[in-house]
Amino acid sequence: MRWKTIICIGVIVFIVFNVFNFVLVIMAATTVSKAEQRERREGHGQSNVTGSNETVRAVVGHDATLPCHLEPPFDVTTLIVVWKRDGIVVHVHRNGYVAQHENFRNRTSLFHDEMAKGNISLKLTNVTKLDEGNYTCQVPTLQSKVMSGNVTLIVGECI
């Protein structure tokens, strides 16, 4: 009986730690850094975020790329990039630090070598039916009229 209690406590600690970690990252994502403040003052960040007009289709178990970029191209390597699905934050990138929602952990990534050219597309690996939905890519600290783009993902069992 004692070992069951220890396991339950361990599971609760694990869940609380993961939720706390995710909340800290979201809080950090809403804070504007000194570099971002400087870029705003100097007039940088006039690019608009553009998603895809076309629906992305994926097969269960395969990978999908959700396209999103800045137009004109703008280096976002030091800025916050946020991806949401149906309003829920799934991926946050800030200065190389990444946070992911537990349902997307180790399955989402950005193309880091392309971020200097404004590419903030999201790669989603091992797609599941639950991944289907409307995604939004955001660069919340951009000083532009369009700070987010949309992409729809449809997931099927076969092509």
UniProtKB/TrEMBL annotation:
The name this protein carries in UniProt is Ig-like domain-containing protein
User: Main location per UniProt?
Assistant: membrane
- The protein's organism comes out as Sander lucioperca
Is Transmembrane included in the keywords of this UniProt record?
Answer: yes
Q: Which UniProt keywords apply?
A: Disulfide bond, Glycoprotein, Immunoglobulin domain, Membrane, Signal, Transmembrane, Transmembrane helix
PANTHER family xrefs: BUTYROPHILIN, ICOS LIGAND
One GO term in the molecular function aspect is: signaling receptor binding
Where, per UniProt, does this protein localize?
Answer: Membrane
Pfam families annotated for this entry?
A: V-set
Protein's GO biological process: regulation of cytokine production; regulation of leukocyte cell-cell adhesion; regulation of T cell activation; T cell receptor signaling pathway
Where is the chain membrane-spanning? 6-32
Q: Where is the Ig-like domain?
A: 47-148
Matching entries from SMART domains are given as: IG
Q: Does the keyword DNA repair apply?
A: no
Kindly state one GO CC term assigned in the UniProt record: external side of plasma membrane
